[in-house]
Write the structure tokens for this entry.
Amino acid sequence: MKLQNARGTRDYGPEDAILLNEIVGVLRTLFETYGFNPLETPSLERRETLTSKYAGGAEILKELFTLADHGKRELALRYDLTVPLARYVVMNPTLKFPFKRYQIGTVFRDGPLKFGRYREFMQCDADIVGSGSLRRDAELVEIAAKAFEQLGLKVSIKINNRKVLDGIMDAVGIAADKAETVILTIDKLEKIGEDAVKKELEGKGVSVKAVKQLMSVIIAKGTNKEKLTQLQSVVVGSEGKDGLKEIAELLSYTTGLPVEFDVSLARGLNYYTGSVFEVVLKNSELRSSVAAGGRYDELIGSYVRNGKEYDAVGISFGLDVITDALKLGRRNLRRSSLVAYVISINQDKEAHAVVKTLRNASIPSDVTYSGKIGKAVNYANEYGIPYVLFIGPEEAKAGKVKVRNMSTGQEQMVGVEDACKIIKVA
Amino acid sequence: MKLQNARGTRDYGPEDAILLNEIVGVLRTLFETYGFNPLETPSLERRETLTSKYAGGAEILKELFTLADHGKRELALRYDLTVPLARYVVMNPTLKFPFKRYQIGTVFRDGPLKFGRYREFMQCDADIVGSGSLRRDAELVEIAAKAFEQLGLKVSIKINNRKVLDGIMDAVGIAADKAETVILTIDKLEKIGEDAVKKELEGKGVSVKAVKQLMSVIIAKGTNKEKLTQLQSVVVGSEGKDGLKEIAELLSYTTGLPVEFDVSLARGLNYYTGSVFEVVLKNSELRSSVAAGGRYDELIGSYVRNGKEYDAVGISFGLDVITDALKLGRRNLRRSSLVAYVISINQDKEAHAVVKTLRNASIPSDVTYSGKIGKAVNYANEYGIPYVLFIGPEEAKAGKVKVRNMSTGQEQMVGVEDACKIIKVA
């Protein structure tokens, strides 16, 4: 039997998992500082919860992993963390709003594979339910900007508004029943380029004139302000005008942040109703977005019969691609979280006492009991452990350890308490 | 459509998730201090990886959730984190040993439901691969003791050794092919009681004499030392003697910890080869174990053809039951991670500036924009947020905020920077 990962899944070995924990740590701290509370929902959901017509849309349902339990109940693996949030909100009627939650977990999509795309991947979402204020949309943009700044990744945060897109459809005479598919094509501009978008639009039966008008609008260049002005002359209906007003308001709340109004941005999921945003890396080989989200004021309400509405806005960080981006960008990746490695030279009991002291001082450390010394030193080297502490008969007799700084090669004979100080200061 | 969780799954709302994060934080810090590195493997595995004959055993395979991808590849959801670790180790031949990893994640078992048992539940595992030293077994026992001490839960750590159990089987004349099933029955002693165990053993064809001998051994009372002495006179074969030596050695490494030698402890999984341990709560209504593990020196090697052996020992913490235990034991559960709540009285812009300052000072905080003041105060009350900061026209004019300590009711008009100090000191 040949051991392999299931197709489209990946392991995070220590080197990757250390990065992942760093990313999650940054996001978690930001979320909590911004007033979000944690929520955990299961990977397994009842199939009908995930296939409700208002959920992600027909496209995403093609990628559903389905299964049944022994009682033949129809189940599926969640494809995002948003639909489970909607379920949770509806099932917990005593929640007070705004309800701000974050969730970190894997989601599953049985879709086509390509570089950087997995069938099981990790998302980290923050959502605000029960507030229609654009200041909430701005909060998420702010968190994204801060998170990537803290992680040392340069990004551009693209924003748009579904109402603007609908207004454009209206202005160039695209029928309502065709608008969704046309918007999906427009969304591909960045990926497939102008010519391919034109061709696809024509293939979808959009008139040559309308295609021309559309293209001139969606490839609008210039500053955010210039783009807004340009669109104000194109968009005539009240919905589109509202959308432009919202973009102007959101831009006013996010001055100083790397925000770019991008008329072609739509985001695939059909549940968005207002703002949409997508964070892309600057100066990176990785072309995929690292975070994305938007406002979905109708999704949660669609699950309840009484017509109650729940304004909601959220953002989702793609942990796999962020990990890959950090990996590409850093020269020295940590291969281990160990800071000290104790090597026993036939002094197992004393070595154990040494590692105990290190651990009590909160120094991530391990010990190797009697074995080959060269092999043990090689282990510390291989994993980039900064300090090695030798304890042999001589050291044991003197009640000391020999501390070797692995990058300088410098050695010191000191008491264990002093060893802790040396390691902690560095 | 009625929204429900999939049967046997649960949500962790903020109250539970805050506890869960606390538990994970304690464990993660301990693991890293003890030299474990993080590892993440997917929930989805190839079915054949999980059904290999050396994996968890026939019992657990009855509880496997199976599915297929669109390419008809046979998949399954992992039922533990140990078999994926074995896969990872075998697939990464450049790993240096000892390889110490921890992993936190959900596992899936389509088994019978009862109180506190779920079909998707969270485990947190630490394993050491590539060392046969009993000092490694002791490390895991030590981590368990420290973890529950830090969490404020009183526990007893039961230990036993599979070799001792095999030695007992031998001594009372149970045939090798029957030993496994007899051990499974013995393992139920705590749960079903002496009489039921006797009955089940007789039902399995064990002679009345052997049952009597067995019972006298497994219900051995007294101190660890007394039990060891008692068994030394029963167990005659070399394997059993080795097992007793190992227990004596492990006990010597764990003096001062709440460790109890329990001859009836076997642990269900058939891959254990030496030490087994199980952590149970003292003085709790919850009867289930909160952590368990053991040594499995043959599992990983069973996946490779070249006969290479990998000594390994691990422990798994049951995060769901630990969360439930903390919930039962605490009077004041945190319902929110928020520390400050800013209430705007028609001063949205100023309120936003206030919350921005709080967040820059790393104070978990949120703001409510213009709305009903009573409702906003009620929100803070409901979620136990310790500080409310009001900002109305008067405060805005004075460049101050009114800080209310929600437990004392005391109010102070201060500048925002001073508000941060008041909140941080408390």
The radius of gyration of chain B is 27 Å. Chain B is about 40% helix and 20% strand. The mean pLDDT of chain B is 93. The CA atoms of residues 36 and 100 of chain B lie 5 Å apart.
